[in-house]
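Whether sequence alone determines local backbone shape is best considered at the level of individual chains. Part of our work consisted of pairing the sequence of a single chain with a tokenised description of its backbone. This step matters because it turns folding into a mapping between discrete strings. For completeness, the protein is quoted in full, as a sequence line and a line of structure tokens:

_____
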Amino acid sequence: MVQIACPDVEKHAVTMMKQLHQMKRENDHCDFKIQVGDDVYYTHKNVLSAGSAYFKDILKNDTKMRREAKVVLKDVDSQCVKNCIDFIYSGKFEMAHKKIVELLRVANMLQLEDVKRAVSGTLEESITVENYFATRNLTKMYGLEAVSAKCSIFLKENIMEISHQPEFGNIGKQEFINLIQFEESKLWEEEKLKLSLKWVEKNPKKQEHLYECLEVIKFDEISTAMLLDLLKTHPIISNNLELYKFINGHILKAREGLKKTEKGYNEELIILFDDETDCIRPLIQ
């Protein structure tokens, strides 16, 4: 037997899909309708089955949708459904960026993994400090692994800016500890302490994990001036007696080291919590 093949098989496949797409537009030989609200899209069963696991399942079994040659999709955006149909036929579509969330929901429902991968590329290029947590949530909801990896990198590179976002406190304990320990982030120890306090500030429930975070911070590399400022001004510290004593203890350790090297140490720079009187007083030598 002699095999006869098109000189350009890929071009042939593209031409066939273009023809099918044109037939869809002209309602030519269409045998299946997709209704979304008042909009009705005419399609071909074979094309839908080949392009979507969702349609393949409902069209290969004896379902009402198969018998009626029609499916009604509720509570979805009609334009996003049209985009998904266009993608099945042509591998491409145009859409407004604001529709990405709804498009992912529709693509996930129709089991269109290629659409989700295509949208992932757009999401990866559009991550910002402001939309970081919204994008991160999408990766978890729809299993967008490539975008999730990009989000992890973005967080490590922009953690100081992202810490000001309201959702910063939603980061889990172990992930947060890993972040402040991450060597390539090149965070100063002072920044790690500020981030830990900000994490609790954004979500007070995280305070029970604060000491675990503080354990990975090298307090001997933090300036005494900063620690003193935190004692005086930061509400999380001033409202937590044990935490106040913890920070104050590191100040005292720094003072002892400084006394050994600088005789002219300014005693008014240290504030001491007095266990006997349960009050704060200047350290008197």
